[in-house]
Amino acid sequence: MLVLGIEVPDDLLRRWLGWFAPPVQPFAIPPDLAGSLELDDDRGRLTPEVRDTFCLYGLGSSALVWLTEAGARRLPASVRRSQPTPHRWPGSIAGREVETVVAYVEKGRRPSRHGDVAPATWDAIACALPRAQHAAVTLGDGWALHKPSQGWMSPTKVLASQDLKYSARARGQRLHRRHLR
Q1: What is the pLDDT of residue 155?
Q2: Which region holds residue 34: left if phi is over 0, alpha if psi is between -120 and 50, else beta?
Q3: N vs C: which end of the chain shows fewer Cβ within 10 Å?
Q4: d(CA 92, CA 123)
């Protein structure tokens, strides 16, 4: 399957679905509420992919509890609404899982132009490409490889160098250049 112009193998697509709408999901809740509901604070289960899906950064003193959809209904509505991002349950996307996760990955992102880069350009830079989590690398011939964030939903893609500069603009961010050999 092509997502943003990049071939996504079936096994990776299945992992995306598991991170996007798992049957048991993390909730950041006040520690006293976790105690009163007899829920364990279990940060050890939080993988980087699930952390990114549910935007669980800087939890502070919150308890991180893991709940099914039925278990989540035990939480006060105000706590469910205060989560950093909405929870998506497998049943809510049943029958359209693939379309839903692909739409999530593609939303607001430019398609990659991997296929437009000449094979000679790929060959020339193959040994120098870093395995960066958040980077842009010019490939030559007006192309750049771009990994906008470390999240699983942010693929490494190819853009025209000028498009990359425009897509990465943000107040306070600076462009730094390094020469790879």
Answers
A1: 72
A2: alpha
A3: C
A4: 44
Q: Would 44 be classed as within a structural domain? A: yes
Residue 119 CB: number of other CB atoms within 10 A? 7
Half-sphere exposure of 180 (CA within 13 A, CB side): 16
**In the structure encoding, which two tokens stand for residue 169, read together?**
């603009």
Residue length, the chain?
Answer: 181
Residues in the chain with pLDDT < 50? none
d(CA 89, CA 101) in angstroms, rounded, equals 12
Q: Is residue 173 part of a domain?
A: no
Q: Is residue 24 within 8 Å of 66, Cβ to Cβ?
A: yes
What's the pTM? Answer: 0.73
Asked if residue 121 and residue 99 are part of one domain, the reply reads no
d(CA 51, CA 55): 6
Asked if 44 and 66 sit in the same domain, the reply is: yes
Residue at 8: amino acid letter = V
Q: What pairs with residue 27 in β-bridges?
A: 65
- 33: number of CA atoms within 13 Å, CB side? 17
